[in-house]
Amino acid sequence: MKIYCTLFLVLATAMLRAQTSSNKDHENAIKEINQKEKQYGAMAKQIWNYAEVGYQEVKSSALLQAELRKEGFKVQAGVADIPTAFVATFGEGKPVIGILGEFDALPGLSQDSLPVKKAIGGIAGHACGHHLFGVASMASAIAVKNWLTQSGHKGTVRFYGTPAEEGGAGKIYMVRAGLFNDVDVVLHWHPGDGNSANPSSSLANKSAKFRFHGISAHAAGAPERGRSALDGVEVMNYAVNMMREHVPSASRIHYVITNGGKAPNVVPDFAEVYYTVRHPSREYVVSIWERVQKAAQGAALATGTTVDEEVISGVHELLPNEVLAQVMYKNLKTVGGVKYTPEEVKFAEQISTSQGMGIREIASAAQVDPLSSEGGGGGSTDVGDVSWAVPTVGLRTATWVPGTPAHSWQAVAAGGMSIGRKGMIVAAKTLALTAIDLFQDEKTIAEAKAEFEKRRGPGFQYKALIGDRKPALNYRD
Questions:
Q1: In this predicted model, what pLDDT tens digit does every residue of 239-250 receive, in sequence order?
Q2: Domains, the chain, with CATH or none
Q3: Which residues form the Peptidase M20 dimerisation domain (predicted)?
Q4: I need a labelling partner for 453 at 20 to 30 A (CA). Which of 115, 239, 409, 437 fits?
Q5: What are phi and psi of 470, to 5 degrees?
Q6: CB–CB of 316/375 below 8 Å?
Q7: In sequence order, which residues have a C-beta less than 8 Å from that of residue 456 and are 6 or more positions away?
């Protein structure tokens, strides 16, 4: 009996020491990020000001690379045939934990950091908060690097600079190039209007530009000699709109006419329409896409034109991982939400009264949503492809005023001031604590891999929805 009591005491003491050590590691990482908050906020504001669209994020990518090099990371730039993509690595051996960072802006959403709509003259804006995304992920990678150095713990932290998430799907090419083959776990986050770490999915999608070619002619003097490429686009759009009634209800189909001709008195010999199809399952995306292609072919036949297609993007749905979500959620609860100053409350109240806002209480920014595996986001992300290559987990933090939709001027405004920065710091801390925990817990990593393999199913082989095309570096032109 005495032997068992002694053994129990030894085990209990060891567990207490491990817990105390873990708490100290967490405290140090949080302290470090707090000390650098102004520096990281300034970097995020720089990228917010750059507002560079997909595959054109030259200054934004360079800024992050320079900081990581200064911190001792080995940086490999221009990976996967993408000039602005890079991988920054520190440490050696297993486990290898990757952290994703994004930095592209959206076209047509220039906005000042004010609670009223006011463009500032640029062509784009960070309406999805990727200026915060890249910097927070970098900050967490640096904190983890410092922990590895100070603790002497074995392992590798790797930051992935991933361009063109907004429609260009840069991560697909990085997955296809094998850049995640030796990674054990990937962590990511995304700006939002609340704080959560749910193991939910997303929508798979596929997009392409359909280009119609016709014959130009004088629209009044000789219309019978022309064949309108714009007619081809409009017939295609009409056919697809009729199709909406006959696709699964969870489907989404969007398009914009990117070129419809230049003058009404000239029959246009060229027109272009840009399509995206979404569904919670990539299999349905593929089947719906085939019908969209037939609509394009039929439109060309009906209007005496020809049509060609350039696939721009295609992403998998997110593959959830509940084992990793539990770890991420625990650390998000430890860090807590975003607390507003009186000035920020005033800003938030003005944002909340703008059109279409006020869905959530402002106070919810300080809360962490309960863990839930139900439902999923209404958007798509190329993180989905990463999640089918390696166990992946993410979170959202309140970088925007609660109730703010992504891709809005309200999101740009909050992301350019202190509210956005505070949410960014919550994300940086949560990512850092989660990585530190995983470095010290081989069992959890093994359990996450087992869940990953079970969800993928036997014999799974990754196949990119974009086929073998090269990166669409000019898709924003």
A1: 999 999 999 999
A2: 2-202+317-456 (3.40.630.10), 204-315 (3.30.70.360)
A3: 206-298
A4: 437
A5: -80, 165
A6: no
A7: 319, 388
